[in-house]
Design a protein that fits this description.
With 375 residues, the protein is an alpha/beta fold.
Length: 375
């Protein structure tokens, strides 16, 4: 595969997903946790809305909108601006930031695979299984004290006179898996009394992009359906409703390299990599010289990855300004290798190889749209 020319992009301070959630907290009369998103505040302060609806479409980054939807499409016409995801630009970190108003450095959910020092395990956090296996982790990730957080849904319900709801597949009483189910549930909630905030999550186009890639007609059809269903929902919702449409990240076409096939480098590693194939946390064996590893890694992968030491990750505040606790520093390891082109880095052949991926620092992965619809 010919490597694409890519533009690097880091989270934009004051203009990212964490700031967006704090704008919602402010609008719902709850104390903010970080700074707000000025581009959204303008709309939230224009008038008093009865319903504020946030639609998050997983993987529908700005580059995906531009690739699959014409400028005259509903979502494109109503895009206010582009903002940034958080780092890593991946669902685990980004949606948790949206749900909490916290930076990844604060909430601690950093990537698909995370290392837990007390159990000496690298765990796929959503599956609660040992990385690249079906073996259950020793402890439930969600029950770990360092991984617990309070959502903005909970904060609004507990700290204000307003109401808040979540619409997604994981609701025990009202699980919503399809666009039709999501729309029906949102409509029912908007008809209820009291001022309210509704957070909605849909797992496409992310899921289908991973599996089928950019050339799939199914991907194009799914994104077109998202556009049409959002327009339909907008038309049937009551007045005094503000709809905000965002994504958690974009996607980039990928090729794969496997560390276990690089014997000289592989033997320097203490354990499997953590976080993401495009944002790899690397832990070295105790007596390995870090400068030796750095030079070897950059010789082999320097055209495709930037390599940051633990000290640099903290200094540059890649995960955010405030380090919450040891779970963050434990998962930085000695280095983090961050993709700047098309390559994903697998620890060994057991790792999955999706057609498209995210979590690197290319603009295609980091940039997400802010779409606002007023009624």
């Amino acid at each position: 595969m010919r490597k694409a020319e890519t533009e690097i992009m880091f989270p934009i301070k004051g203009k990212n997903l964490t700031n967006l959630s704090n704008s919602i907290l402010k609008a719902m009369d709850v104390k903010i946790l970080n700074s707000t998103l000025k581009e959204l505040d303008v709309y939230l302060l224009q008038e008093k809305y009865k319903n504020i609806v946030l639609l998050l479409y997983d993987g529908l980054g700005s580059s995906i909108l531009d690739k699959f939807l014409p400028k005259e499409s509903f979502l494109q016409k109503n895009k206010v601006c582009n903002i940034s995801s958080v780092f890593p630009a991946t669902t685990v970190a980004a949606t948790t930031s949206v749900l909490t108003g916290l930076e990844p450095s604060e909430h601690g959910w950093l990537g698909w695979d995370m290392f837990f020092k007390d159990d000496n395990e690298t765990v796929s956090v959503y599956m609660n299984t040992i990385k690249d296996t079906s073996i259950p982790a020793k402890h439930n990730v969600k029950e770990r004290p360092e991984m617990k957080y309070k959502t903005i849904i909970e904060k609004i319900n507990e700290e204000s006179s307003n109401d808040a709801y979540i619409v997604w597949p994981f609701d025990e009483k009202y699980p919503c898996n399809t666009l039709e189910e999501i729309s029906e549930r949102i409509c029912a909630l908007c008809d209820m009394p009291n001022k309210k905030f509704i957070y909605s999550y849909y797992n496409n186009p992310d899921k289908i992009l991973h599996q089928e890639g950019f050339k799939s007609i199914n991907v194009r059809n799914e994104i077109t359906k998202i556009d049409k269903m959002t327009e339909k929902l907008y038309k049937i919702l009551p007045s005094k409703t503000l709809i905000i449409v965002i994504a958690d990240h974009g996607h980039i076409e990928c090729e794969y390299k496997t560390l276990s096939e690089d014997n000289t480098l592989f033997e320097l590693l203490e354990r499997t990599t953590a976080l993401e194939p495009r944002a790899c946390s690397i832990k070295l064996k105790e007596k390995v010289d870090k400068d030796y590893f750095k030079n070897l890694f950059l010789k082999n992968y320097g055209n495709e990855f930037k390599l940051y030491s633990k000290e640099e990750v903290i200094e540059y505040q890649l995960f955010g300004e405030k380090i919450k606790n040891s779970i963050v520093t434990d998962n930085i390891g000695d280095f983090i290798a961050i993709a700047i082109k098309n390559t994903c880095l697998r620890y060994d052949q057991k790792g999955k190889a999706f057609k498209t991926y995210h979590a690197g620092i290319t603009k295609d992965e980091m940039e997400v749209p802010l779409i606002v619809l007023k009624k």
